[in-house]
Amino acid sequence: MIKKYIYLKCKIKNKNRLLLKLYKNNINVYDIIYKNNEIYIKVLESDEAKINKIYGYKFYYYSDSGIFKLKKEIPFIQILEIIMFIFWVNFFSSFIYEVQVIHSNKDIRELVRLNLEERGIKRLNLKKDFNEIEQIKEEIKNLYKDQIEWLEIENVGMKYIVRIEERIINNYDNSPQYCHIVAKKSGVIESIVATEGEVLVHDGKYVTEGEILISGEILKDTEIKNNVCATGQVLAEVWYTTKVSLPLNYVDQQYTGKKRLNLRVKSDTFNYKIFKSRLNNYVEEEQKLFDFFGLSFYKITEREVISENESYTMEEGLAKAQELADEKVNLKLQEPEHIKLRKVLKKSLNNSTIDVELFYVVIEDITNQVEYQIELKDGSLDDTRNTN
Amino acid sequence: MHLYKTMKNFLLDQDYYIDIFQDFIHVFNYIDILKLEETKVILDMPNFNLEIKGQDLVVKRLEKKEILIQGTIEGVNLKR
User: How many CB atoms lie within 10 A of CB A184?
Assistant: First the structure.
């Protein structure tokens, strides 16, 4: 509890006598002001009764002290005005009034400015917190690895100053001088397209991993006439087995089209939804609005859904499992790679879960360029590179 | 304030102390005020009496264990 101090006024002839009396009565005096023949003493309000009992002196209340004095002197409306002033200053200073991008190259400036605008760093938008700024910096740097070496976003007052260091790339040719095309995986050759080098295998041949398919050594009568970097593409049949487990019972969620808006306040220690949700079954989409005094405000869109418990028949489950397995295999493939054949090896049902084992024949690019070095006549290795 | 005093007692583990400033003298843990005048103040301290001489000596703060005296301090004597 806050101790309340008050100032008492007293007319005196001998100030020291009064002080000695106060001292003898165990009254602490926290401040003493002398004015002509008057004395002002700061004492605890709880001591006032004891002081008034001192014989020969008449004490008058003069004023409160500390926060109580402030409370009495400043009206409530003024305190409210001060609080509102602090609030509005804080509110307005959380906006960006200018984004200044510093770099000599106009294209780089424009590129960074547009990217920052896309990410919400633009005039009259709310300032971002430190983590968001760091994330935006990383995103832009990763997106323009070849153009931007370093990027700094500095918050100075109510503006952001963006400093950029342009990346200057020396185009050294790192392509190998002499290379073979070898098999990345074992498989049966489907097609070979060689643009440079000597083809050592033919369609339908089974090759093992690491075997040379297109050689960089150009031979004539078993003698190496020239060395090149073999280039081309070799497609081969590769075999895979994959397993998929799928529950036959599942929950199907359908949007009804009804949606409600809500607000959420989050901090490190709490997560509070402002309005009560009016929908019974819904999914949420969250969008951050702004940060204020360490609190993050989010807009929540609640979309009503109808959930129904569904179940697959054995045939439907098998078809779905095959579809999932195809997706799994297709994830690894790129044009012109494709699935040639698929066969179900094994299927079983355990606790309403269907387990399927599938065999796949996939046409896959097994091209792998491997550099080699040739020995010069003086015994040293030729490892020269062309530079632009 | 309680915390401050506890810390102060812990750090200043002494029976008493006397601080002399330009126009002030601060005494902690005095036993009694023996004399209080404009030119002389005598305080009863453990083992001795503290005599403060000066001009226009006035008490600015007076507590059970502490006293702060303002004025032109001309001399401080310890009388055993």
Answer: 18
